[in-house]
## 1
Amino acid sequence: MAAHDGTLLTVTDLSFCIDRHHTIFDRVSFAVGRGSLTLLCGPNGSGKSLLMRIIKGLEKTSSGTIVLGGEDVTSSAKKRMRSVGLVFQDAETQVVGQSVEKDIRFGMENLGLGLDEQQRRLDEAATLLDLRRFLDRRPKTLSGGEKRRLAIAGVLVMQPEILILDEPFANLDWRSAVSVLTILLRLKDEGHTIILVSHEVEKTLAHADQVLVLDEGTLALSGSKESVYPKLTERGIFIPRGVAIEDLSWLKP
Ligand SMILES: Nc1ncnc2c1ncn2[C@@H]1O[C@H](COP(=O)(O)OP(=O)(O)OP(=O)(O)O)[C@@H](O)[C@H]1O
Ligand SMILES: [Mg+2]
């Protein structure tokens, strides 16, 4: 698909086979619009993280194509590494610097950004993610929620074209989850394109422009939240009865 039609990412017939007898998912196809928020869900082990790692360029696909901004980047993991920002499910493994500030600067230094630009992006991300008071701290001493915000900051300063967050609410208390979701929604308002991987569908569905459900080796459901909603329970996804879709949010306790 062309870049100007509002589509940023197009995944076509993507498969991942461990060997001839073992396929994790088969012929997954979907498109992500610029400035949209896609919610990817599905049971444990359905391949959500793997699919996102493939899109990022960390794993090779068995077959299929990935088009980003109108350009076929299937065989260019390097380009995907640059354009796709992925906040790992295990945020801890993403934290590398000796201090919070050094950690946020790490990727920007690799990109070869000038010091002024680094400082500008650092200031912006540290403010947005409420990390200013931690800049001199060793990342190891941060709490789980603080580490998650640090991991998001480290990815954001790279200014990726598409931002993927893999289970960003895992192990967060309600207040921290609200703060991460609020930041995501602010980024979306600013025009960022976001894929949110979360099994806590009952806390996120309200904000999704598109919902994808991976199950039993395929993309079992895809579409608007309204179209997917009635079929979620049969896919093993918990949705409380009698709650309006727009109330399925961390922001609506
Ligand atoms: N590089 C790999 N090689 C072989 N198998 C893999 C690889 N990566 C993941 N898998 C397997 O693929 C399946 C899907 O894993 P994945 O981590 O993507 O699941 P998930 O949907 O993210 O699950 P969860 O909800 O628990 O995070 C698992 O059975 C996993 O063991
Ligand atoms: Mg996962």
## 2
Amino acid sequence: MLESLSNLYQLMDDAWSRIAALYQFQCNGCQDNCCKSLFFHHTHIEKVYLRHGFDQLESDRKNDILNKAEDYCRKTFLADGEIKNLKIMCPLNEKSRCILYPYRPMICRLHGLPHELRKPGSNPVIETGCRAGRFDSQSYFKFDRTLFYQKMAHLEIYYRQTSKKKGKINETIAQMLISQ
Ligand code: SF4
């Protein structure tokens, strides 16, 4: 199942690179750094894959990352239930690079480019890309995420059935690293 997820990730990466090339866009890091965004991830299978990558790191490095993840959660999720978006760097980002790049979740892979999503019975919803790309001044190149979301949903359903997991998760990378 993880191999199927890896293949799906490859399709996403290929599509992203193809569309980015049409815009002549290269992500070289920016002030808005998307690794500081408060992204929530929703699939157990992606969490398993991320943690599979994490488990391959040396223990000192893992401890360091876990400390950062705990700090991230302490500052972001307050005891009274409030969630603070403080733009804290993801604990997996080191020197502007993702330590677990091959294992990063779908949203990390698809972020940045203008894209669309099609829901049955509705017109496609088109979202703007990140500010760094200055996409507003360019024509839109079709980047449809729908099929990726559908394939991910199928994989997740199958994973939940075989692993007896129930319900979706709603976790940041930091939470995925420190929770089971
Ligand atoms: S997992 Fe990697 S790509 Fe995703 S936010 Fe963290 S550092 Fe950035």
